[in-house]
Write a structure and sequence with these properties.
309 residues; 4 helices; flat
């Protein structure tokens, strides 16, 4: 491709028209020169166009070749991917088969180990039972010797039955004793709870009685205080009533004296406030009269003093 571009550059250089410098020619010559140059440029463009078409054809052939190679490469990749998938599938099946075989082998080994443990336990159980049997043989012999001296028992089974009966009776008595003990313990606990409840109730009632006594004493004290306040209020009210009566009598006496001495005909009043208004007016009038009298006396004295001078 670089060779093609280099060749195109050389061809372009060869086909470009040479510019003729005609500075001192006539306009017709210049026009002819311009037409010649335009013709040469047109030929150069045609040559470039043919060269471009040729290169485009080459590029198309190369593009088709690359597409064919790309398709071949994709097909090769698809075949290789299928090959890898088949190998992965075979390997996965082989690994799964191997894992299953290992799992089965481990399961069998575990079962063998468990059965071995069970077998060992059975052997130990057999030895233990054998030891118990040898140990109980002495009791069998002992029971047979007891039968020889005891006339009421004919067989070992009778003796064992009697022993079982006595053992059951003993168990019943123990169970009865346990139940009686539990019942007694329950009754004792209930008694303690009852005593505690009643003690708490007594304490609560004592507290209530004490609180009520205290409230009663408080109420009695408040009643005494209220009684004292009432007596004091009655005394104050009596004193104020007495004072009010004295004021009313004094006001009425002064009102009657002022009314009798005044030349103004004041009407009779029973309201102390109105009586005091009348008394105030009378006193004001009397003060004004005295003041006027003093002024007149002063004027007379002044007039009598003037001729003497």
């Amino acid at each position: 491709m670089d060779d093609i571009e280099g060749g195109a550059g050389v061809t372009r250089a060869k086909t470009l028209p040479q510019t003729l410098v005609l500075d001192h020619v006539s306009p017709a010559t210049r026009l002819l020169e311009k037409r010649r140059q335009m013709f040469e440029v047109q030929e150069a463009l045609e040559a470039q166009k043919q060269d471009f078409n040729r290169k485009e054809e080459v590029f198309k052939r190369r593009e088709e070749a690359l597409k064919l190679k790309d398709l071949e490469l994709q097909e090769s990749l698809i075949r290789f991917s299928k090959f890898l998938q088949e190998n992965d599938s075979k390997r996965a099946r082989a690994e799964k088969k191997a894992a299953d075989e290992i799992k089965a082998r481990l399961q069998k080994e575990k079962e063998i180990e468990q059965l071995s443990e069970v077998l060992e336990e059975l052997r130990n159980e057999k030895e233990r039972i054998h030891e118990v049997l040898e140990k109980n043989m002495r009791y069998q012999q002992y029971l047979e010797s007891v039968l020889e001296v005891a006339d009421e028992y004919q067989e070992v089974s009778d003796l064992l039955l009697r022993h079982a009966t006595l053992l059951a009776t003993n168990q019943d008595l123990k169970e009865h004793q346990r139940k009686c003990g539990e019942l007694a313990e329950k009754i004792r606990a209930e008694l303690q709870i009852y005593i505690k409840q009643k003690t708490d109730e007594i304490l609560n009632l004592n507290n209530v009685v004490a609180r009520l006594k205290k409230e009663l004493e408080t109420y009695e004290g408040d009643a005494l205080v209220q009684e004292a306040k009432k007596d004091n209020s009655l005394q104050v009210a009596s004193q104020k009533t007495l004072e009010y009566g004295q004021v009313v009598l004094s006001t009425d006496n002064i009102f009657n004296r002022c009314r009798g001495r005044s030349r103004i005909g004041y009407p009779a009043e029973s309201n102390p406030l109105q009586q005091l208004d009348v008394v105030g007016n009378y006193v004001s009038d009397l003060g004004a009269i005295i003041k006027q009298f003093k002024l007149e006396q002063a004027k007379k004295a002044q007039k009598s003093d003037e001729p003497a001078q």
